[in-house]
Design brief:
This protein is α/β, with parallel strands linked by helices and about 375 residues long. The chain folds into two domains: about 5-105 and about 250-335, FAD/NAD(P)-binding domain; about 110-250, FAD/NAD(P)-binding domain (3-Layer(bba) Sandwich). The protein has ten helices and 24 strands. The strands form eight sheets. The chain has a five-stranded parallel beta sheet with strand order 5-2-1-9-20, covered by helices on one side. It has a four-stranded parallel beta sheet with strand order 13-12-11-17. It binds flavin-adenine dinucleotide.
Length: about 375
């Protein structure tokens, strides 16, 4: 069997899992290389806790090299070009050739695409932003808080709701909730529409019970930092004293220029095998677009990147071993996620997103059990159990 080189682009959730699983399944003669710009891995599901002041940056991150299995080579640097035709990529100026490539480069956040947004808004979608929000929340003593989801699609459908519910809980603990007016604006018609009407209703009731105004079908157009005002596409406006946003997302530029994206701007893949249109090239996680039977896209979430990575690793290993295509593994669309609600509780959504005609998702109501489930998951992930 000829020696093969598999390169994994990105050392986030999908990239780490696929690299470690490949290393486990392939003999030592084959090379597994991860290319990643950041030396540290940050566990995104904990960002909302970081923003509330309940976690420190050090406790939700690890050196990437410590999380990768022995025998996985790490190239730290910026991927500057992907050349599908020649089966090579560039890290800065350096060329790296491949036999198989797994792309797991995630989604980029683009606050500057909304005029006024970068100057005006706080966020908890990046570690540095979550820390800035933590400091602002610590000194906030009242006023209008607007949480705005700036565009579609965005990572983790539950995260904006966690953000607003935990901020409400924080204000209650500080004894200032009576001085705070909370409003949430989202482009979608209902909370987490992919999870179905029952889940949406439960979240809506949670927001109502906590006196958080909910405004669906509001797509952000501009922000005026001087007037402290947001304007939506239908020209409706809202005033704020503190603006928290989920910034717009896009597929990383380096992927867009590789020619693998479609009209959605993301990379289409076979939803069962994660193969792209290019031979020997797979893509997984947030950078992909998968359309569900309902017509909605599969949400961008780590749980999917994780599950997809297992499938891709097994199939590349099978291909190298010469096992015929008919015996390949497939991703079945199962997913789950916690939704922190405060007061030591979390809700928990689980089900099959590939079910037809609609995803078959059950949202379990908030309990202490699911909150502890999320804490346990965080600990296990940062110990590299995947
Ligand atoms: C606040 C928040 C809460 C979340 N909570 C949950 C949750 O509870 N459950 C859940 O399932 N998901 C959650 N998610 C979503 C989850 O984090 C993402 O869906 C997941 O990380 C996607 O994995 P990925 O491998 O596709 O991309 P990522 O994990 O984003 O990894 C992409 C990697 O590629 C690297 N990269 C990109 N471009 C380049 C380049 N040019 N050169 C070198 N390296 C590059 C990046 O540095 C990054 O490390 C949350 C996200 C956020 C922001």
């Amino acid at each position: 069997m000829a020696r093969k080189r598999i390169i994994v682009l990105g050392g986030g959730i999908g990239g780490m899992v696929v690299a470690n699983q490949l290393r486990k399944r392939l003999s030592g003669e084959h090379q597994v290389i991860v290319v990643e710009r950041n030396p540290r891995h940050y566990f995104a599901p904990s960002y909302v806790w970081l923003a509330m002041g309940w976690r420190k940056q050090e406790t939700i991150s690890r050196e990437l090299s410590r999380l990768l299995s022995r025998g996985v080579q790490l190239i730290q640097g910026e991927i500057s070009r992907i050349d599908i035709g020649e089966k090579r990529i560039f890290v800065g100026e350096d060329e790296v050739r491949y036999d198989y490539m797994v792309m797991a480069l995630g989604a980029e956040l683009t606050p500057p695409s909304i005029p006024g947004l970068p100057e005006a808004a706080y966020s908890f979608y990046e570690v540095s932003e979550a820390q800035r929000l933590r400091d602002a929340l610590a000194s906030f003593d009242g006023g209008r808080v607007a949480l705005v989801v700036a565009g579609l699609p965005y990572k983790c459908p539950a995260a904006p709701y966690e953000g607003v519910l935990l901020a409400d809980y924080l204000f209650r603990k500080k004894g200032i909730r009576d001085n705070v007016q909370m409003e949430m604006f989202v482009p979608e018609p209902a909370p987490m529409p992919v999870a179905g009407p029952a889940a949406g209703q439960m979240i809506h009731e949670l927001l109502q019970g906590r006196e958080i105004g909910y405004h669906p079908r509001h797509r952000l157009k501009t922000v005026d930092p001087a007037k402290k005002q947001v304007t939506f596409e239908d020209d409706a406006t809202a005033e704020y004293d503190m603006l928290i946003t989920i910034p717009p997302h896009r597929c990383p530029e380096v992927v867009a220029s590789s020619g693998l994206t479609n009209e959605s701007g993301w990379v289409p893949v076979d939803q069962r095998t994660l193969q792209t249109s290019a031979e020997g090239v797979y893509a997984l996680g947030d950078m992909t677009t998968i359309t569900l039977a309902s017509g909605m896209p599969l949400p961008k979430a780590g749980v999917f990147a994780h599950g997809e990575a297992h499938v891709v690793a097994r199939n590349i290993a099978a291909d190298i071993a010469g096992i015929p295509g008919s015996a390949r593994h497939t991703f079945n669309g199962d997913g789950a996620c916690f939704l922190e609600t405060g007061f030591g509780k979390a809700a928990y959504a689980t089900g099959n997103f590939y079910a037809e005609p609609n995803a078959d998702i059950k949202l379990r109501k908030p309990s202490f059990r699911w909150h502890w489930g999320k804490i346990l998951f965080e600990k296990r992930w940062l110990r590299g159990w995947f």
